[in-house]
């Protein structure tokens, strides 16, 4: 059997995603703007029709489907956000941040509730993860 007679299977349709040309969406990933430095991203997840970006400086940035910045907040004071998950069918976001001098910290955020003073999502729980 010759190699040319093998059947190919296309499992994915490849297409380039282009944000709208309104200037604001394109600026989200532009290194000249303070929104998101593409070199600083440490994790990404999706859920609730949003894209969640975690960065090395402890910030979570929430983007819409049109790549517009909805909200940005400091989730962890120290360390890089290494893991993030939006819990399906809820408004909860789980983040884990690590730095070399401390144990990893897990936080659960209620995205539908905000702190009155700062306006950031309410942190429902904070847990230190013991590596052992």
How does this structure look, described?
Helix content is 3%, strand content 42%. It has one helix at 24-27, and strands at 41-47, 50-55, 59-63, 69-74, 80-86, 92-98, 105-114, 121-128. The strands form 2 sheets. It has a 4-stranded antiparallel β-sheet, with no helix packed on it. Strands 5-6-7-8 form a 4-stranded antiparallel β-sheet, with no helix packed on it. Strand 3 and strand 4 (69-74) form a beta hairpin. It is globular, with a radius of gyration of 19 Å. 18% of the residues are buried.
List keywords for this structure.
about 130 residues; four-stranded antiparallel sheet; 1 helix; mainly beta
Q: Concise description?
A:
This protein is mainly β and 132 residues long. It contains one helix and eight strands.
**Secondary structural class:** mainly beta
| Strand percentage | 35-45%
How would you characterize the largest beta sheet? 4 strands, antiparallel
User: What is the total tally of β strands?
Assistant: 8
As residue ranges, the low-confidence spans are none
The end-to-end distance, rounded to whole angstroms, is 54 Å
Please state the CA-atom Rg, rounded to the nearest Å: 19 Å
Helix content: under 10%
Strand order of the largest sheet: 1-2-3-4
Mean pLDDT: 84
Q: Helix and strand string, N-terminal first?
A: HEEEEEEEE
Put simply, the count of helices is 1
| General form | globular
